Amino acid sequence: MATEFHNLQELRHSASLANKVFVQRDYSEGTTCKFQTKFPSELESRIERTLFEDTVKTLNNYYAEAEKIGGQSYLEGCLACATAYLIFLCMETRYEKVLKKIAKYIQEQNEKVYAPRGLLITDPIERGMRVIEISIYEDRGSSGSSSGSSSVSGSTAR
Amino acid sequence: MMKNCEYQQIDPRALSVSPASAPQSPAETTAQRSRRKWEVFPGRNRFFCDGRIILASQSGVLPLTLGLIVVTCGLFFAFDCPFLVEHLTAFIPVIAAVLFVFVVISLLRTSFTDPGILPRATPDEAADIEKQIDTSGSSTYRPPPRTKEILINQQVVKLKYCFTCKMFRPPRTSHCSLCDNCVERFDHHCPWVGNCVGKRNYRFFYSFIISLSFLTSFIFGCVITHITLRSQAGKSLVQAVQESPASVVELVICFFSIWSILGLSGFHTYLVASNLTTNEDIKGSWSSKRGAEESGNPHSYNSIITNCCATLCGPMPPSLIDRRGVLPPDEAISAASASEIELPLFTAKNDAHMCTQSTKDVLERMVHSSDFHGLCPPGTPKTTPLGLDDSGTPAPSAEPSPSAGCSQQRGRQSVAAPCLALSRSSKRDSMHSINPAFRLASPSPSLSRTSFILGEAPDISFIPLP
């Protein structure tokens, strides 16, 4: 059942939260920040697999760019050490710049792709970079049947 | 006559309205005084300057560290520098001043920076993890597996479940029992610095100990030169010392410091070059004791220079706990009530589930407490002179004694004692921090779980049966 929402405000006011899906971290390459691209089963009826995978892959690329160990990060590190790390008080680190880009990207994805499908992505930084939390909303108008079905599926999953 | 009464007659209508308006007043007061997230932070940290500065719950011996550094340098500048400037060169106080400033700034950065604390799992997350663990069917009363095996660079690594933070710890993360937080890339909790050393402040800690090594060596050398020069000018050594007694104080302090600090610097240089943490080195996580296939550090880049650069000059990750963020009003209320009962942030969403969860914790705690006294500490760590206390020591024994940290001993205590004193099984999750009174009050569904051994010995892990 596709619930139509035209913007995020409408989503939050007129919909009730049915379920939350958590996309976990992928540690196969070490401690760098990377999320699993496995498509969660709860989203199968809500969004196309390719759209979801694109979002997660783009996020992974952003995080890889933030954590890249290369010329610029060395320069930043050495400069910081030379100034006794006081430079961090005035300058924004590269990681923080990329985090801002990520926040903007997630906002844009929410507005264009996820909110029209009754979904909402929470920025991983608000969950300690552990999970991508995707909230599934149900329209309050049709809440009788759809929330009933989601609660049934929730109990069988236990 | 009635009108001469001093009290006002109570309006019965006002009485009926007031209970309805009472719930609104805490909301109003909470909304008027918007709270920041640091005020409801569940870990044992202290915050200053409205959340800008974070410190561990006990500042340990940070004042002592600062005091020793300042006093030694002060004596040096006051009593040795004039003589040395006169007889040698004016660069000596300049170099000492630069080193001193660097040392103090590094120390303060190490102490006041968030080491990489992981915020605790939200109740939804915790419920989701619990659901995933129990998907194999709850007909058998099996305790939830507390380890999860993953592959990192084609090497099997076990992730442990943290009962306090309600999540599987990412690799290289450990729970510090003193601060009651999971810290990323946990190295150790240093009482000299008064904070944990983890991912975000390791480079500050390393620059602190390196610069302190240089400073103590420099002062030591200068003071020796000073006394030598004085005694060469036709006086005896005793006379030279009598003329400048402060130098003896500095000599004593520097002499005892140099051994421990140089040793610590060398040890940490080795750790940086092999991309290890103190925690991993002491536990022997990547040693080949378990067999050939498990040797090797999967996080190492297999090149000393790359390891050094990655650890020290890598990108600076952000703080994940968002201390100064403002709490939304509904979370503020639930957090306020929760913090009064000394709980992590539980909302009343799924009461039955929470009761079950807390009952499991109670039962595990019972087994843990009976297990703990029977544990004998494992042998001394491979590399002296460090000992550490990362996870799972119950509250009464987690005293901030100098033995529970890196042994930058500036004097009397022997180096081997700290290692033995805290080589307890460091694999326990700390469940002591949460007020047990609440846990015991919740109903217990089944006591058959107590028959399972829930204690975790160093070499046993629970792997879920297929």
From TrEMBL, chain A:
Membrane topology of the entry: Lipid-anchor
InterPro entries for the chain: Golgin_A_7/ERF4, Ras_palmitoyltransferase
Annotated GO CC locations: Golgi membrane; palmitoyltransferase complex
Key words of the record: Membrane
Domain Golgin subfamily A member 7/ERF4: 21-133
Biased composition regions of type Low complexity, renumbered to the chain: 142-158
Positions of region (Disordered): 139-158
Keyword match Membrane: yes
Domain of life: Eukaryota
Main location: Golgi
PANTHER family (alphabetical): GOLGI AUTOANTIGEN, GOLGIN SUBFAMILY A, 7 (PTHR13254), GOLGIN SUBFAMILY A MEMBER 7B (PTHR13254:SF2)
Record family assignment: Belongs to the ERF4 family.
Name used for this protein in its record: Putative golgin subfamily A member 7B-like
From TrEMBL, chain B:
Keywords, ordered alphabetically: Acyltransferase, Membrane, Transferase, Transmembrane, Transmembrane helix
GO molecular function: protein-cysteine S-palmitoyltransferase activity
Gene Ontology cellular component terms for the protein in this record: endoplasmic reticulum; Golgi apparatus; membrane
Region of interest: Disordered: 13-35, 374-412
Catalytic reactions on record: L-cysteinyl-[protein] + hexadecanoyl-CoA = S-hexadecanoyl-L-cysteinyl-[protein] + CoA
Domain Palmitoyltransferase DHHC: 158-283
InterPro entries the record matches: Palmitoyltrfase_DHHC, PFA4/ZDH16/20/ERF2-like
Listed GO biological process terms: protein targeting to membrane
Subcellular location: Membrane
Membrane protein topology class: Multi-pass membrane protein
Pfam families according to UniProt: DHHC
Domain notes: The DHHC domain is required for palmitoyltransferase activity.
Family from the record: Belongs to the DHHC palmitoyltransferase family.
Official protein name in the record: Palmitoyltransferase
Organism: Scophthalmus maximus
Gene coding for it: ZDHHC18
